[in-house]
Amino acid sequence: MNIAIVAGSSRSNSQTAKVARFIRQTLINQFDLAEQEVSVIDLGSYPLPLWPGEDQGPWGMFEKQLAKADALIVLAPEWHGMACPAIKNFFLYATKAQLAHKPAMLGGISAGVGGAYPISELRASSYKNCRLCYIPEHLIVRGVEKVMNMPLPVDEEDRRIRERLNYNLDVLLRYADALKPVRAAIDMSLPEFANGM
Ligand SMILES: Cc1cc2nc3c(=O)[nH]c(=O)nc-3n(C[C@H](O)[C@H](O)[C@H](O)COP(=O)(O)O)c2cc1C
User: Fold this and answer.
1) Domain count of the chain?
2) Nearest CA to ligand 1 atom 2
């Protein structure tokens, strides 16, 4: 099983990247995935140039990580009530060649009580041409600076978000297993249906 976690903040040392690293450790420690089975694509540490451009920056490396993933976790901070532009730019690079019919769990990240807007924005747009399949469960990490910092939860909010994360990851991994034969059965090479409607 191979999971790619996309941390969609353009800030280096972002809280979104912190959550990505926490989820990676959770998959390794609690879901028995091997270190090499979980990768983090941090758009803050390895920024993608604004598409289109001659220079594709780290896309070549990301493309390989995404192509071998069986499932994705897409994390987006809420900035001015929107998904951070870095994650929208990511979806201009990503295509069905890497992502078609792979399950993905969304995560909205907020330092306050926001975090829902990036979820609804990415559910409404982002998947049409790449055919990524967002699962019904998503994560909204509110008060992000106060949670997922220590190996053990420090309070009730921290405990609750970790429990929700574990529940969601269990669901995601089941979708990842279930969609493997679906992907193998779908012909993605038909030119008349190259893009979604
Ligand atoms: C330009 C900008 C706009 C922001 N707007 C919002 C917002 O609309 N709602 C919200 O809950 N948090 C907002 N925040 C705060 C983020 O929730 C906070 O920075 C959090 O740490 C996630 O961003 P990060 O992953 O880049 O650290 C904003 C932050 C920035 C930098």
Assistant:
1) 1
2) 79
